[in-house]
Amino acid sequence: MRFFILIFAIFILNSLTYSQNFIYSRDNRYSSTPLFQCKCTSGFFQFSIGKNSDAGILMLQGSLWLHQRFSIAVPVYIFLTNGSKITVLDNVSNDVVDGQYLFLYSLSSEDMVKLQSCDIAQIRFSFKNETDSWTAEPFDYYDRTNDLFFHGTARDIVNLFKK
User: Based on the structure, what is the number of domains in the chain?
Assistant: First the structure.
């Protein structure tokens, strides 16, 4: 009986933890994946994918090293592990919250289907008025809820769209 109670408690805690991830844009709130940590040319970077009906939101987030380059130019490219590429052209907003620079982009429903079927390998972007491009690569993170190391984004995006 204790085993079933433990399994039930883990299931409930997992769903409560997952449901606390949101992306905020102006007056809108979107359910989202956890923040994925990335290695980038000039430090660390984070991103998250949000749900907007059947479409999505890409949030890129970085800290102080972005302070002199506040605006990321479009397009932003998302490279998947199967070799395909998603070109992101629609910048929704830019903001600074608690020293974190946030950049939001719209993703189509077709983009979301691709993101659910394959993990993100890299996100490539450049800053306005600069010619250099930057590459952010997701790296492994520790999933405390399931006590395992995980690399990949598709699983979390699939779970997001099951809600």
Answer: 1
Cβ atoms of 21 and 130 closer than 8 Å? no
Q: What are phi and psi of 133, to 5 degrees?
A: -105, 155
| 22 contacts: CB under 8 Å, gap ≥ 6 | 29, 30, 31, 32, 50
Distance of CA 158 to the CA centre of its chain: 13
Given a cut of 90, whether residue 112 has pLDDT beyond it is yes
What is the spatial distance between Cα 121 and Cα 41, in angstroms, rounded to a whole number? 15
Tokens of 115: 């993101």
Rounded Cα distance between 80 and 106, Å, is 17
Q: What is the pLDDT of residues 43-52, one digit of tens each?
A: 678 899 999 9
Residue 138 sits in a domain of what CATH number? 2.60.40
Provide the Cα torsion 90, 105, 93, 45; round to 10°. Answer: -140
Q: Is the pTM of this model over 0.85?
A: no
For 61-81, what is each residue's pLDDT tens digit? Answer: 887 555 556 678 889 999 998
Range of the domain at 144: 2-162
